[in-house]
Amino acid sequence: DWKMQDVLEEEIRTINSMVGPNDHVICALSGGVDSTVAATLVHKAIGDRLHCVFVDNGLLRYKERERVMSTFESDLHLPVTCIDASEQFLTNLKGVKDPETKRKIIGREFIAVFDEFAQGLESKLGKRPEYLVQGTLYPDVIESCPPPGSGRSHSHTIKSHHNVGGLPKDMKLKLIEPLKLLFKDEVRKLGSILNVPESFLKRHPFPGPGLAVRVLGDVTEGNALETLRQVDEIFVQGIKDAGLYDKIWQAFAVFLPVQSVGVQGDQRTHSHVVALRAITSEDGMTADWYYFEHKFLVNVVSKICNNVRGVNRVCLDITSKPPATVEWE
Ligand code: XMP
């Protein structure tokens, strides 16, 4: 793609003229497409004066940390520090049921962990890093400042979306936003030129607060997170095996704080209920539920009930957005 090749070269020139030869750059990787492509691009321009951090907040999906770290290290050779802060996040989330409070706590803890990483880096380098890379896209720019009269609604007023973009403003870091003029499909093309694996570029979006908005209520209760990871993995892997992954915008499981009566063998059970949600969408602002074949659903549900301890009932969410939102919280 010659156009994206041009964009790439232009961006590398811009970064090199901006970042001095002794300057250092910091970047928080979320495991998503945007921050990964942005970091890979900056790394190509300035090499190991880029310092990335990936935070395990204890709210990641099944084997997520291992999977993204392997892409960062083996495929992209990015300099990444992985910080396991799961205990810190989960301790702070204990007993918290309100979705917006959960988002706030996660945002706050993320900043605390990032701050500590930046300070550690400062003492290692003997100077502060000057720049921060962010994977801001063009639609994010428009959405946070919609042109007057555009009629564009502002989804942030419905949910205070936390993602790794939400970093402290008082850190005095100058911003590098190499994707600021691009749309998502262009970022994917750019990523492909930068050798980001195709499977990674096609990943479904994943919310910044992670599984915290998919375990309804207190995320630390019982075995909820681990149970949700297993259910989610069976569902998403089933979708991949059926060749449906690229037709779906997002697919995930939700853990409900509800128990129902069931029967297994000749034993009465009183176990948890989970919901499955798969949607198609253009931009996440509106969405339709995805229509699965009967056979696919039968298979997935029996796999879940036979393999995941503590789950005896599976529901399918067939609500579009609006009136529902994509996530349940
Ligand atoms: P909703 O639930 O608002 O979701 O219809 C629209 C899209 O945004 C994602 N989402 C989030 N992303 N931080 C994020 O980075 C959040 O707090 C958050 N909440 C929802 C959701 O997964 C969907 O793609």
TrEMBL record:
EC nos: 6.3.5.2
Keywords linked to the UniProt accession: ATP-binding, Glutamine amidotransferase, GMP biosynthesis, Ligase, Nucleotide-binding, Purine biosynthesis
Keyword hit for Mitochondrion: no
GO cellular component terms, A-Z: cytosol
Annotated protein name in UniProt: GMP synthase [glutamine-hydrolyzing]
Record's signal peptide: none
Organism name: Carex littledalei
Keyword Ligase: yes
